[in-house]
Amino acid sequence: MIRVVLADDQALVRAGFRVLLETEDGFEVCGEAADGAQALALAREHRPDVVVMDIRMPGVDGLTATREITGDPDLAEVKVLVLTTFDVDEYVFQALRSGASGFLLKDTDPVELLRALRVVAAGEALLAPTVTRRLISEFVGRPENRRIDAGAVRQITEREREVLALVAGGLSNDEIAAQLVISTATARTHVSRIMTKLGARDRAQLVVLAYESGLVTPRGSR
Q1: Rounded to an integer, what distance in angstroms lies between the CA atom of residue 57 and that of residue 118?
Q2: Where is the Response regulatory domain (predicted)?
């Protein structure tokens, strides 16, 4: 059973998500929040598997709440799945840097939302490649975002660069293995080593660090 907290300031949005989840086997909605403060309180009270987090909410916004949740050692098992629209891209990028496990657009099909919740609850990152590339190309090039130690970057091997580029493209370990004609176990080992070298806490942060470090560049970027 995947336990979910829904955080959105629009009651209609929360109601729609609740109906969707409660009619699907394997999901339980254990709370609803209209702002970030409520989302944080519910996360601490119920320890859900996933918090579906809107960003623009009154009072404490979703970005702040995401940082609080992902920064609390007692909530280490709680994943955050951010909901957004294209006009809040910068906030989504910051949310990923803060530890959110992924993001979805608000007009996502119901089937995709259910799949996303399962992926995130299982400990994987959910990164829509097309949206990720737009985020990265617009915001990673800013000088203030270059925070990666040069020594750590030099430790990355050529094979690891290949793997990292595929991770940044949104590929799973199975897909990386097929692309590079290696075993899934080997792909998983490469990803784990890269995460250790760059100090990434999870796959979502690894994608952000990949672009911030310059190890991966967006297609079509200048």
Answers
A1: 25
A2: 3-121
What is the assigned CATH class of domain 146-212?
mainly alpha
Residue 96: CB partners within 8 Å, gap ≥ 6?
82, 102, 103, 135, 204, 205, 207, 208
Instruction: Give the separation between CA 81 and CA 52, rounded to whole angstroms.
Output: 5
Confirm whether 2-126 and 146-212 share one CATH topology.
Answer: no
Domain range annotation of the chain: 2-126, 146-212
Q: What is the pTM of this model?
A: 0.70
Bridge partners, 214 (sequence order): none
Non-local CB neighbours of 137 within 8 Å, separated by 6+ positions: 218, 220, 221
Q: Which of 141, 124, 149, 138 is nearest to 205 (CA)?
A: 124
- CB-based contacts of 85, cutoff 8 Å, min separation 6: 105, 106
2-26 as b/e: b if 16+ CB within 10 A: bbbbbbbbeeeebeebeeebeeeee
CA distances 26 to 2, 110, 118, 132, Å, are 6, 15, 9, 29
- Can you tell me which residue has the tokens 């075993």? 183
CATH architecture of 2-126: 3-Layer(aba) Sandwich (3.40)
Say if residues 108 and 119 touch (Cβ distance below 8 Å): no
163-219 pLDDT, tens per residue?
998 888 778 888 899 999 999 999 999 999 998 888 877 777 787 778 777 777 765
For the CA atoms of 127, 83, 139, 43, the dihedral, rounded to the nearest 10 degrees, stands at -90
